[in-house]
Design brief:
Blueprint: H1 3-12, H2 15-19, H3 36-50, H4 52-62, H5 83-115, E1 121-123, H6 127-136, H7 146-165, H8 168-175, H9 178-197, E2 206-208, E3 214-216, H10 239-257, H11 263-275, H12 289-299, H13 322-350, H14 364-380, E4 386-388, H15 392-397, H16 403-418, H17 420-423, H18 428-441, H19 454-470, H20 473-497, H21 524-530, H22 550-555, E5 565-566, E6 569-570, H23 576-580
Antiparallel strand pairs: 1-4, 2-3, 5-6
């Protein structure tokens, strides 16, 4: 037995292994293929895929101006040239780097510890843009002050907590039709892919246009024309893009094909190191004002910046902003609940921890509650709503199956608080190919969609395509669910009106759906409490097999050998992602 195998075996047979249901732990619901060191490696991969949020979230939210006050003169209504205001905004941006790292660390660690899911959390993209540009407005030009928007975010978190505590968020996840759930995984895969194609967070192969929604790009920063698009002569001439494709993409794929450990991390690190020297044509630190500022921050290597301007700045006097507060709260609620629900289900499905009978995933109540409290805590740090990150798929692809992966992400984000200059300097083209690769791994779910019956197929297809093209998981779910309701309600009405004589010829192929949601509307803990179970917080599965004593778990007593079953039934682990473990 090698050192690595020995470590994996000892941890699996310990209390830690049983808590996280590692392979070989003896837990009746142990997760096959989950190994301690693989989980750590997967967490590092997820962190590298998410690390861009440190710089991107700070950049987007600081555009709101934070708590800085703009004088709004006639010559400069948005304070674009006001030096004192811009210096204040720069300070807010540094505050937000620390805030993003701190809340991502807390949220991800708690998600792993309490929900046992390999999902990282951080301030969500899309929601932060809505927060900065629609709610607060660029440099505070919107109708809602920054402090009021943070108050709405704080309240949203506790509303979510109540919904999760009483099972309403879990009920929503189970009530979504099966075809829409599968389509969500595929749609998120395409969403990841299009993110990987963009300039801000990927390779820069595509960009938005006016005559067509998307056009081919791939030009260096000096290759943009007056219309903001790449000129024909400079398309696909960006050396950074090609390094990202081959060193970060093709190389990673080859390493994964030959089962090389840490393949995803190796690709991200290689591209980052190549991109850091300033003397190359693909440097992440060009000799510009922005490049100089980024390089000055990078050179600090170790730096802790204390939050000074955005910590606990909520404003509870809503008398002058009641309408704006209500609008922001409602918008955050419906977008975030669908976004997080879709992401968590897709990641749980990718990690093979979804119960096929109830459609729920293990640890759902704890996961939604951690997400909810993280939103409120994040607002105290001055951040927009926190959500589950689809980049968690990078760690799952690396073999992550348990909460140890998410806890590793949390530890990495904690370290990044002190090494923010390094982790905030991972270029987007270093992670672009990884996002595309993870997107491809989420495509197999499309095979299981019921394409035979149009009442299932068309809503699923709309869900898939709306997500990447609107840059929103929530909008994709809304479109698919509404279309599903309209089509299938019309079929039901026609059938009832005709006395059952007019029905689609292949209606028998339709996926079954009923308002009687499997598992009931109440969360499992409430169901157990209603039955009079004293330790209602414990899963019933804990009694599906004999509980070993602490001493037996620690010494790995042979009587409690590892079980590869759930409720006594064999588990099918023949998936490509499991083999990566």
């Amino acid at each position: 037995m090698t050192v690595i195998q020995s470590i994996n075996h000892k941890v699996a047979r310990s209390v830690v292994g049983r808590w996280f249901r590692l392979d070989g732990s003896g837990h009746p619901k142990e997760r096959k293929g989950s190994l301690f060191l693989t989980e750590i490696r997967a967490g590092i991969a997820t962190f590298f895929a998410m690390a861009y949020i440190l710089a991107v979230n700070a950049s987007i939210l600081s555009d709101s101006g934070g708590t800085c006050v703009c004088p709004k003169t006639a010559d400069d209504p948005l304070c674009n040239v006001d030096e004192s205001y811009l210096l204040c905004v720069a300070e807010v941006r540094r505050d937000l780097v620390t805030a993003t790292a701190a809340i991502s660390s807390i949220a991800s660690f708690c998600m792993g510890l309490f929900a046992n899911l390999p999902v990282g959390l951080a301030p969500g993209l899309g929601l932060n843009a809505y927060f900065a540009y629609n709610v607060v407005g660029f440099h505070g030009s919107g109708s809602t002050p920054y402090a009021i928007a943070l108050t709405a975010t704080f309240v949203e978190g506790f509303v979510f907590f109540a919904l999760a505590l009483f099972g309403l968020r879990q009920w929503l996840a189970r009530a979504i039709p099966h075809s829409i759930k599968l389509a969500t995984s595929v749609g998120i895969g395409l969403f990841l892919t299009i993110i990987g194609f963009t300039y801000s967070e990927g390779l820069g192969i595509l960009q938005g246009a006016t005559s067509t929604p998307l056009v081919l790009a791939g030009c260096p920063q000096t290759g943009f024309g007056d219309d903001g698009l790449c000129t024909e002569a400079t398309k696909m001439r960006n050396p950074a893009m090609w390094v990202g494709i081959f060193a970060g993409g093709v190389l990673t794929v080859m390493l994964m094909m030959y089962r090389v450990k840490a393949a995803i991390i190796a690709g991200i690190l290689l591209v980052s190191i190549i991109s850091w020297p300033r003397t190359t044509a693909l440097t992440y630190f060009p000799y510009t004002t922005v490049g100089d500022d980024a390089f000055d921050f990078f050179r600090k290597v170790v730096d802790f910046h204390q939050i000074s301007r955005i910590l606990t700045v909520q404003e509870w006097n809503l008398s002058q902003h009641g309408a704006q507060f209500g609008l922001a709260l409602i918008t955050f609620l419906y977008v975030d609940i669908l976004d997080t629900t879709g992401t968590l289900y897709a990641m749980a499905n990718l990690a093979n921890v979804v119960d096929p009978e109830t459609g729920d995933f293990e640890g759902s109540t704890a996961a939604y509650m951690v997400d909810a409290l993280s939103i409120s805590i994040g607002s105290l740090f001055g951040s927009s709503p926190v959500t589950a990150f689809i980049e968690s798929g990078a760690g799952i692809a690396e073999g992550g199956r348990t909460g140890i992966t998410a806890m590793t992400v949390g530890v990495c984000f904690f370290i990044s608080i002190f090494f923010a200059p390094i982790f905030a300097s991972i270029p987007p083209w270093a992670t672009g190919s990884v996002l595309i690769l993870v997107g491809s791994m989420m495509m197999p779910a499309a095979v299981n969609i019921n394409w035979r019956y149009l009442g299932d197929a068309v809503p699923a297809f709309v869900t898939i395509v709306v997500m990447p093209f609107t840059y929103s998981i929530a909008y994709g779910l809304i479109a698919g669910i509404i279309l599903y309701i309209i089509i299938n309600t019309l079929v039901w009405l026609i059938e009832r009106a005709s006395g059952g004589r007019v029905v689609p010829p292949n209606k028998a192929d339709k996926d079954p759906w009923t308002w009687r949601i499997p598992g009931g509307a109440m969360p499992p803990w409430m169901t157990r409490a209603a039955r009079g179970k004293k330790d209602f917080w414990r899963d019933d599965s804990s009694y599906a097999a004999a509980e070993p004593t602490l001493a037996e778990v620690v010494r790995g007593d042979d009587k409690h050998s590892s079980s590869g079953s759930i409720q006594g039934k064999p588990v099918d682990v023949n998936t490509p992602n499991e083999k990566l473990a």
